[in-house]
Amino acid sequence: MLHTLNNLKNLAIHASDGDIGLTKDFYFDDKHWVIRYLVVETGSWLLSKKILLSPISIKELNQKPQTLTVTISRKQVKNCPDMDSEKPVSRQCELEYMRYYGYSHYCDNTDIWGGYSSPNMMSPGYYSVAPKPDNLDAPDNFADVDAALSQDNDHHLRSSNAVTGYKLDVIDGDLGHLHGMLIDTDTWEIRYLIINTSNWWLGHLVLIAPKWIKEVSWPTSKIYVDMTQQQVKDAPTFDPSVPFSLEHEQSMQTHYGRNGE
């Protein structure tokens, strides 16, 4: 199911031994366009610290009330290696995090979750009749991952809060800014960017598929898109008051299948 990031903020995180806190931000990978971490503000039990939570640990998104149930405990969170949510996440810090929780790493894999279709399938103890992908690294064998990480220091991780408002730079000029994102909470993949075109086309929100994005630039606070102003204007519109249905998804696939080849 698709949700906007705004609808996924302030979700209560239910651990196996109590509540952890509330979601406040999301770190996404702008190379594979997937949410890698949820930034969670803990309650008074951990001095309202901000911690990073991997979608690998998410067991279930509960609809009413909207909460997230996770497979980890508050004790694990308390003793987890420190990852400063206010600073970029380094490869080394992430590797230490994955080791601590016993997660397989998705590094250097063409699929967004290391060959699995969803992140929770990477969680220790997950049972599936499907065979384990041959190219996954076992949690206790990170030698190849260490080597791969040392060769790639550009992690492509971005804060969704930080990039919201970035201007859209298209082929023939600027047009609009990033308003939000639509997330598939089965895979935590970013399916569409929500673009506000009010500076050019009053009152319209349109959806753009990530495959059109060339670069997200911190120095210029811009998102560079391989589209013209007219192509953005012709993109499917988005109404936040209307649930994103299967019909909407089919319409999007038809539009970008036709225009993206």
Automatic annotation (TrEMBL):
Domain of life: Bacteria
Entry-linked SUPFAM superfamilies: PRC-barrel domain
Protein name, entry field: PRC-barrel domain containing protein
Species per Swiss-Prot/TrEMBL record: Pseudoalteromonas neustonica
Lineage: Bacteria, Pseudomonadati, Pseudomonadota, Gammaproteobacteria, Alteromonadales
